[in-house]
Structures are given as structure tokens and as C-alpha cells.
Write a structure and sequence with these properties.
Length: about 170
């Protein structure tokens, strides 16, 4: 495995997972671009790493590896993992599957997190309660913006993102 070569794929998967999990926690339907992105982007990042790793290990790949890997990744990833790592290929295979499927599974985990730590009855997120604690001066930094935005818009069932400074 190339030293630190998997870092960009891990970062890509983490960002996509955080985005997907946030939509799940806020109980919002993901836009199609986010839905496609959480499926496609981590897969491309993992397959790009596999291609670099194959060069480092001297494993000959076919010329059109990208298309073949894209179509047959459920079969090719286990083959590649065990061909290059032997019996230790399980660790690589599980890591690659976690990178690829993790962001997609973050949405239901976000919904479970919402069930465990629900927003308050006023529709605010738990973070806002912490920011209103006496330790932080008793007010949320975005309180004025939140009040102005929520006065101008009709009430919604989802949390108002203006309250966290967005």
C-alpha cells in the first residue's frame, strides 16, 4: 500500500458521509446531486487509489481499467485485495467497502441519531441549546439573524439553518 496514498479517498468519503448524515439528521430529502455524489464520488476515489496501488505492486491491469472497474467493482475489489495482499486482503477489502458504502449509509445513521438526540420542541438543534448556555454568554451568536429570517419566512418543520450561522 503506498504510504499515505489512501488519505484523499478517506477524506472524500468522510466529507460525503458528513453531508449525507447531516441531511439524515435534519430529516431532509437529499437532492439528486447529493444522492448521486454520495454514491459516485467515493467509488471513483477508491478506484483511483486501487489503480495507483496496482502500479506500486506491479499488478498488471487492463488498459481500460476505469470502465471495467466501474462496472465490475463488486467482483474486482475482492480479487485485487487478495491478489496483492494474500490472506490479509480482508482488511483492505473491508476498508475499501467502508469507503465506498459509508457515505451512502450515513443518511440512515443520521436519522437514527435524530431519533436518539432529537431537536428541542422549538425546532432547534442541540448545538443551539449549548450555545445559549451561561458559559457562552446566554445567547446564540446567530440569534438576531435567526429571528429575522424566521420572521420573514413561514414556519417550517425543519430546523432553520440561519441559527447556526449559515
Amino acid at each position: 500500500m503506498p504510504r499515505n496514498g489512501l488519505g484523499p479517498a478517506i477524506a472524500c468519503s468522510a466529507v460525503c458521509g458528513l453531508l449525507s448524515g447531516t441531511y439524515g439528521y435534519l430529516n431532509l430529502e437529499r437532492p439528486p446531486i447529493v444522492d448521486v455524489g454520495t454514491l459516485v464520488v467515493p467509488l471513483i476515489a477508491a478506484l483511483a487509489w486501487v489503480q495507483l496501488d496496482a502500479r506500486a505492486h506491479g499488478v498488471g491491469l487492463v488498459h481500460d481499467w476505469g470502465l471495467i472497474a466501474w462496472i465490475g467493482w463488486p467482483v474486482l475489489l475482492p480479487w485485487y485485495s487478495f491478489k496483492t495482499r494474500g490472506r490479509a486482503g480482508w482488511r483492505l477489502l473491508l476498508l475499501l467497502l467502508a469507503l465506498i458504502l459509508g457515505p451512502f449509509l450515513a443518511y440512515p445513521f443520521g436519522m437514527v441519531a435524530r431519533a436518539i438526540w432529537p431537536p428541542t420542541s422549538t425546532g432547534e438543534l442541540p448545538v443551539q441549546e449549548v450555545l445559549r448556555a451561561p458559559l457562552f454568554g446566554g445567547t446564540c451568536p446567530g440569534a438576531r439573524l435567526h429571528a429575522r429570517v424566521c420572521r420573514e419566512q413561514p414556519p417550517r418543520r425543519t430546523a432553520c439553518l440561519a441559527s447556526v450561522g449559515v
